[in-house]
Structures are given as structure tokens and as C-alpha cells.
Amino acid sequence: PAVFDWKDPLGSSNLYTEEELAIAETAESYCQERMLPRVLEAYRNEDYDKKILEEMGELGLLGATIQGYECAGVSSVASGLITRAVERVDSGYRSGMSVQSSLAMGGIDEFGTEEQKEMFLPGMAKGKILGCFGLTEPNHGSDPGSLESVAKEHPTKEGYYSLSGSKTWITNSPIADVFLVWAKLQSTGKIRGFLIERSKCPPGTLETPKLGHKNGLRASITGMIQMDEVPVAKAMMFPDVEGLRGPFSCLNGARYGIAWGTIGALEDCIARARQYALERKQFKNNPIAKYQLVQKKLADATTDAAYGILAAYQVGRLKDEGKAAPEMISMIKRQNCDRALVNARNLQEIFGGNAVSDEYHIGRHVSNLFVTQTYEGQSDIHALILGRAITGIQAFV
Ligand code: TGC
Ligand code: FAD
After folding, report:
1. Which of 1, 11, 198, 257 is most buried as measured by Cβ atoms within 10 A of its Cβ?
2. Roughly what angle, to the nearest 10 degrees, separates helices 362-374 and 245-279?
3. What is the pLDDT of residues 16-54, one digit of tens each?
4. What is the rounded CA–CA span in Å between residue 296 and residue 122?
């Protein structure tokens, strides 16, 4: 007879191939055995251990959907399962991986020249070359079309541009070796993608200060990219893509991953809250799990997690068939981030005062999930993307 499993309420595991299940298992064991023991110290000290990316590289988890260039070439569903396993531990670790895999490697794979791909992708797949993605600026977050960073013809160096401008809230920027920066080409006014290598920047032209004292995503590292006439060889510009289609195409992959990942974080909250509710006793020695209001919180969260996974799965399959419209990705990114945040906040109440101690992990997930709802398009921005697709009228401006 069919049995209900609270860990997989709608039986999504029946949908995965053998290979996808094996990849998920590898990722889950690595994350639980090697990442989880480090997360509390990392979060307390805002200390991102970049060895994590090397370890992920050794397991073939970076840029996993890319074909060739020493990448694993797995399905979008398999990459979603990896993301879910990582974010079950911490959204910050998933963030570091998303930026490396979907935003930086994904951009190079989709828009780079053969030379750029050969130069960066194999090293990035191994976690030996660290990447970051600079779109957001101090004055332009939700509206990146207005960005001010500019690439001018270099005044003295033949075959070079000179890049100036400032990017902020950039995951991995303080430790990155290669920067995928989006700036306007002065001659056309159009947004273009540039690959800046830290090792090739003359002193004083590139600074990447860390943004510390965060109250979420503390296990990831975030910073600025300050460019003051950075010389960049023309061969380091993406040759063909112009306008916002470039950065947004990279974001499609990262937003898709977040839809899986945030459900991983929510699933961790559910498992921890359930366990706590079964152990904690109040009023006549009853476990608080006996009380209806506590059960409702668990029922709501478990339902949203199960629906979220099925939706992400469906978009993953369509993605591999070339049938995933960006609006579908906006829908699952928004819904899964929002539901993960709301439910995690409700589950936090189950822990009573202990919720305030980081050793119960729930407060960390709640703070992280606020960030996931904000970056890669804040939820209301995704509502407007959907509203535009539904009505044909844009409401941004
Ligand atoms: P709009 O007119 O809508 O579009 C401009 C051009 O872009 C194309 N496009 C897309 N192409 C591919 N995929 C998509 N999802 C696309 N969305 C739009 C579009 O076809 C058009 O092309 P063309 O050739 O006609 O020029 O542009 P808009 O300026 O009106 O945009 C409005 C809006 C709100 C949709 C957009 O600006 C937006 O999405 N804002 C949110 C910004 C955002 O997501 N920033 C993310 C920064 S990176 C980040 O947060 C990383 S965190 C990583 C981590 O740590 O995990
Ligand atoms: P704003 O655009 O100022 O928005 C503020 C509020 O106004 C939001 O609620 C928004 O929904 C609302 N709003 C804005 N416009 C409208 C409108 N037209 N209608 C209705 N409501 C509106 N960026 C990168 O490029 N690379 C990274 O690696 C990266 N990593 C990040 C890591 C962290 C930890 C954080 C916090 C951010 C990161 N970001 C990154 C930046 C992130 O993408 C932006 O913060 C996000 O896009 C929102 O932009 P903003 O902060 O400028 O908010």
C-alpha cells in the first residue's frame, strides 16, 4: 500500500532518474557530512571558507549542467537537486555556488568566445578559479538597465577598453579571480559583458572591499567591485550579446536554482521543527507536537515544500527541452522564496525562546531566506514580471 512520507509528501523522488538520484545522494552526503559541521562558526564569524568551492569542484558539482570543459553535463533537475542539498545546510553556501556555476560559468558558457571558455571554465569547474557577477550598482538594483559603469576606448593601450564604475552587494567579489562585469560601451550606450582578471589589473585600478556586519547570509562573502580605469583587453568582452538579455539569461539559471534551494532550506526547518516539537513537552507532559496549532504550522510548511519541489521539477524538465519561459522561472523563484520565508518564520515559533540560540539553526535560515527573497529580483519585481506577461502591460516605470 502507498505510504505517506512527510519528508517527500508527494513522492517527487519517483520522478528522478537513477543518475539524478545518485547525484542527489552524493551531494547530500557531502553537504551533511562536510559542510554542516562548519556552518555555525562560519556564520558567527562571517567567514566564508573558499575551500568549499574546491571540494564541490572535486565532486563535479560546479557548473554541473555545462557540456564539456571538464564539467559534468548533468540535467537541470540534477543541478536543482544539488542546489537543494547545499541550501539545506545554508543559503550562503548555495549563493557562493550559484554565482560560480550559474552566473559566472553559465555566462561564459552561453556568451563567451571559445578562447574565453577554454581559459576559464575548466579551472572554474574545479573551484580553482573563483568567479563573481557584477550587475547591481549602488544606485541601480531592481533597475539594472540604468546602470552607470562604462567601458571607454583605452586612451593609451591599443586593443583595450578602460572600465570605470562601481558594483555593490556582489557575492564572492572579495575573493574572486575573475569578474563578469556588465557595463555600457561608451560608443553605443549598450550593456556588454566583460571578463576582468584580478591578476592582470594594475595596482589601484580594481578594489573589492568586503561588506561586513550582515544580518543574513553571513556564511557567504559579499563585497563591492570598484573599477577605476581598469584596462580590459577587447578580446575579454563577450562578442555578440548586447543589452539586458546578457545578464538576464545568466539570471534565468541562477533563479531556477534558488527555487530548488530555498525549498531545501525550508525542508531543513521542517525536519528540525518536527523533531523539536516531538521532544519538547509542555502542559501535562505532552509533546508540543500534540497541539493542533503546532501541527498546522508543520502541515502548511510541508505542503508548500512539496508543491515547491514539484513546480521546480516541472520547470527543470521543460528547461532541458528548451520550453522554459523566463516567466515560469520568475513564478517558481518568487513562490518558493516567499513560501520558504513565511513558513520558516512560522516554524521558528515552535522553538520558543530556544529559537534565539543559533545552535537550533532556525534563526539562521529565516535571516538567509529574507535575502533570497530580495536578490536575483525581489519578489515584488517578479510579481510585476508575471503581471506584465498576464496583462501585456508593464508596471515598472
Ligand atoms: P526588459 O525590457 O524587461 O528587458 C530588456 C531586455 O532583456 C530581455 N530579457 C530577458 N532575456 C532573457 N531572460 C530573461 N529573463 C529576460 N528578461 C528580459 C528582454 O527580452 C529585452 O531584450 P531586448 O533584446 O529586447 O533588449 O527590461 P527592463 O529594464 O524593463 O527590466 C525590468 C525588470 C524588472 C524585469 C528587470 O530589470 C529585473 O529583472 N530586475 C531585477 C534585477 C535583478 O534580478 N538583479 C539581479 C542581480 S544578480 C544577483 O542578485 C545575484 S545574487 C546571487 C547569489 O548570491 O546567489
Ligand atoms: P531596490 O531596487 O532599491 O528595491 C527596494 C524595494 O523597492 C524592493 O522591495 C523592490 O521590490 C521595490 N521596488 C523597486 N522598484 C519597484 C517598482 N518599479 N515597483 C514596485 N516595487 C519596486 N547583485 C549582483 O549583481 N551580483 C551579486 O552577486 C549579488 N549578490 C547579492 C548578495 C546579497 C547578500 C545581497 C543582499 C544582494 C546581492 N545582489 C547581487 C544585489 C541584489 O540583486 C539587489 O539587492 C536586488 O536586485 C534589489 O536591488 P536593491 O537592493 O537596489 O533594491
Report:
1. 257
2. 160
3. 999 999 999 999 999 999 999 999 999 999 999 999 999
4. 48
**Across 369-393, average pLDDT:** 98
Ligand 2 pocket test: which of 98, 258, 375 has the largest number of ligand atoms within 8 Å of its C-beta? 375
Is 376 one of the annotated active-site residues of the chain? Answer: yes
In this structure, the residue with its CA closest to atom 46 of ligand 2 is 375
CA–CA distance, 87 with 277 (Å, rounded to integer): 23
> What are the grid coordinates assigned to 9, written together?
509528501
- Beta-strand ranges (E) seen in 71-177 are 131-134, 150-153, 160-171
386 CB within 6 A, ligand 1: no
Span 131-145, pLDDT tens digits: 999 999 999 999 999
Say if CB 34 and CB 51 are below 8 A apart. no
Residue 374 beta carbon below 6 angstroms from any ligand 1 atom: no
pLDDT score, position 153: 96
- Mean pLDDT, range 264-270, rounded to an integer: 98
According to DSSP, residue 210 is labeled: B
